[in-house]
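Hey, I'm writing a tutorial for new members on how sequence and structure tokens pair up, and I'd like a real worked example in the thread rather than a made-up one. If someone can provide the structure for the chain below, I'll link this post from the tutorial.
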Amino acid sequence: METNMPLAISTDYAGDFPEIEKIEHSLQKIAEHGFSHVHWCFDWDGDYIYAKSEIEQIGVWLEKYHLKCKGIHASKGSARFANQTIWHYKKDYTSSIESSRLAGTDLIRNRVDLAKQLNCHELVLHMYLPFLDFSDAGAKKRFYENSLRSLDELEPYCRDNQVKICIENLFEAPADLQLEQFDMLTNRYSPDYLGLCIDTGHANLVWGEKFTEALVQRYSDRIFAVHIHDNLGPGRGKGYGDAHAVPGDGVIHWEKFMEALRHSVYEPPLVLELNKPAEEDEDDFLCRAYNAGIRLTKMGYGDH
């Protein structure tokens, strides 16, 4: 499909690599297949801190391959069990351990620095809800006190660098608790600082075919980032789960979603957040992904 329409894809479509050559290879392939933008997702999960030299190198790569950055996936800190606080983790901005909480805010500032280098204004962030602890009202109160303290402290730095934090909907927590979370955050913080990232695959797992009304229409004035991918929706068995499949390979009603997104404050290009199947050729996968993304762009925004 020949087009000059802008479109973004996550950098980690084939995995997250420690090898420099593999990182650059992914960027080269993205550019070769017509994408105009990347969503920087390398090191989205963990406590890796980018050095100044690495941040500068990423800028050099994007310039080399004529790519722009449409959002950065920040890290919430070390990998953890999402639904309950059994242990405490490194660089966790929601932590009740002050040293870890402060380190978590430093980790997010590091990604703000990357965003500034890449002239990017959207920082996607997970805020896992340890909802299995919430039967204790005190635990819920403490979780939000710590999380909001961190967001309060990050606000001046984000504003100074013209970067908005976009809290992503996830699939681990129940729908009502996520809506409570988003309502509280959007009431507390200005849209100049904080909004949402709508992840279509996660939303489909939690709300099924009703996710457009539940999320996109409800928060249409706060959608500053999107992660677009497909899956088979709620269920169990082979093929179910957070597949990060190419749009059209699952059951999401894309016409309905794109119509709602078009009436939101979201500014294209769209961002595909996909996982390449191990058995699929890389070039074939990127070609399929690009064509699917362009179809969705035309569906929602026409040929403009």
